[in-house]
Amino acid sequence: MALTLPLTLADKIWDAHVTATTPAGSDLVAIDRVFLHERTGASALKSMASAGRPVVDPRRVFAVMDHIVDTRPGRGDKTLMLGGQAFITETRAAAIAAGITLFDVTDPDQGITHVISPELGIVLPGCTLVAPDSHTCTQGALGALAWGIGSSEAEHAMATGVLRLPRPKTMLVRFDGALRPGVTAKDMALALIAAHGAGGGAGHVVEFAGPAVRALDIEARMTLCNMATEFAAMAAIIAPDEKTYAYLAGRRYAPTAFDAPYWTSLHSDEGARFDRTIVIDAAAIAPMITWGTSPEHAIPIDGVVPSGPTRAHDYIGLAPGAAIIGTPIDVAFIGSCTNARLSDLRRAAALVKGRHIAPSIQKALVVPGSGAVKRAAEAEGLDKIFAEAGFEWRESGCSLCFFAGGESFPAGSRSISSTNRNFEGRQGPGIRTHIASPEVVVASAIAGAIADPRDLEPQA
Amino acid sequence: MTPFTTLSAIAAPMMFDNIDTDAIIPSREMKSTGRTGLAEGLFAGWRYVEGRVPNPDFVLNRPEYAGARIIAGGANFGCGSSREHAVWALAEYGVRCIIAPGFAPIFAANCIRNGLLPLVLPREAVESIAGREVYINLAAQTLTCGDETYSFPIEAEAKDMLLEGLDAIDLTLKSRTAIAAWTHADRTARPWIYL
Hints:
Chain A: Its cofactor is [4Fe-4S] cluster. The complex is a heterodimer. By secondary structure, chain A is of the alpha/beta class. Helices cover 28% and strands 17% of the residues of chain A. Chain A has two domains: 1-285, 2-Layer Sandwich (Aconitase, domain 3), CATH 3.30.499.10; 288-453, Aconitase, domain 3, CATH 3.30.499. Chain A has helices spanning 9-15, 41-50, 85-98, 113-119, 151-160, 185-196, 211-214, 218-226, 242-248, 261-264, 310-316, 342-352, 371-379, 382-389, 438-447; strands at residues 18-21, 27-30, 33-37, 61-64, 101-103, 128-131, 145-148, 162-165, 169-176, 204-209, 235-237, 276-281, 288-290, 298-300, 331-334, 363-366, 392-393, 414-417, 432-435. Chain A has a five-stranded parallel beta sheet. In chain A, helix 2 links the parallel strand 3 (33-37) and strand 4 (61-64). The relative contact order of chain B is 0.17. Chain B is 32% helix and 19% strand. By secondary structure, chain B is of the alpha/beta class. The longest helix of chain B is centred in the C-terminal third of the chain and has 14 residues, at 176-189. The two termini of chain B are 35 Å apart. At the A-B interface, helix 2, helix 3 and helix 5 of A face helix 4, helix 6, helix 7 and helix 8 of B.
């Protein structure tokens, strides 16, 4: 029997995709799937068309309208963003011309890229998937090597079938123990970034492992992997297990059986060498919330605002030493590729049921991650629970995760949001964003001020 | 693409961490599916007060840094959204190099594809050169400022691409035979990938 060096999962997938190595030592890595959206998709496809470069394998390229598409009922191509309609019509025309698969505005499968790709079985364990969208790392939750790229790299992948890249470094982040009640995958991600910085994972493929990760369902694993880009990681990955294969069984683009030897090889070997290892005690994590303007500005919800960069304190309007609980909020948002899947909506609805948002809340919104999530939630009556509590219930899309020029609030408004970025101006000029789990969002919407969901008992 | 060989310019100081691509080009400034017309929106949230009036406090609005070709920034520069529009906006404004203690990986890759040099130096070095005239020699991987010369790291392939102004797609298409052979074999090994 040949002796082989123990390998990490990321290295195994990388090795399985190297088509050639360049004289300078980069690899030409085969790309199995490309996903585009209307914000960057038309630009990449139009640029290829004008250069006379065809898409080498259109059957493995997908596109969806998610970023600036309207989420109000009865929507069409018109957007709240001025001039946004051109992004939709041009992406549609370019997708049809290139012969790729498009999930259009009114398609029942329309939804946020990183919600529908797993739902449809487009992302698979051991595959490589890229998209001109930083949160592509979400899809590593299925055991794929999935990462965000720019438009030029998307063109490169579509025109050549490969990307030219130096082999990335690897990092193991192991969550030992078990999460306490009321603590979620979102809190795991924020706790990691708070402890090790928004640049802490730079250039690495981060493998999440350990008993607390194994215990997460597939949707929660997506939430954890989603935030890896806020850690500056190239990608995140979780080794596939029975849960992964059970999740994918019967999905439209997934194989009918996962019985080839390739599937069983998809784990890091005992003794595999990572460039860096971080160990976190899952039981020590509390519900987290951001106080500032970077995801690294995250604290336990029962904590006080620490001393950080002056410009972050000035923007957010909170001084060092202040308790974060009780800070009045104006807007509440549940949505995004981080936290808008069915399990997220179920947990939020369980807390909301029989309660009402505070009268001081100007707007409270639930935007399901996909058409399929929306239909499943409605079949369970979750839409009614949210509506009775005072939340608007919308069509699927990225919505208030960022401000493209459409829907927003007066400068200075304070938002509690289940999204991934609390940057200055992310949700609109002057908007102060606090990111947290859906549980924290609904508890805060009910209280009218930042609140700890552990103080709310689910109602029968 | 314009090759990057040497550059002499003042490094405009933006010495705070986590300057994100939403700050570099706010989403509302991405007004078309094209790659041009973006320079006006560069740093729009900081650069203008209401009604597109220049904010006199913003570094690029100060006469000594107007039209800067180099920006000296803090750690994790270019974090956030993958939007290449951030790099297109910087390039259109005239920026050819960002100097920082570290970059978000997608932003750094976007810089290379557009002829901008993402130059990594230790934080103390970036702080000491910020606001001063520097000379960059990419072939030698050195940055000189006053009497000090610093060496900086860069991936071999990224360096070649910048020095020669190469188009990555044209370069990769030279390997199309090897890629096709690999794909042919992979169709048998992993048929489920090929839809």
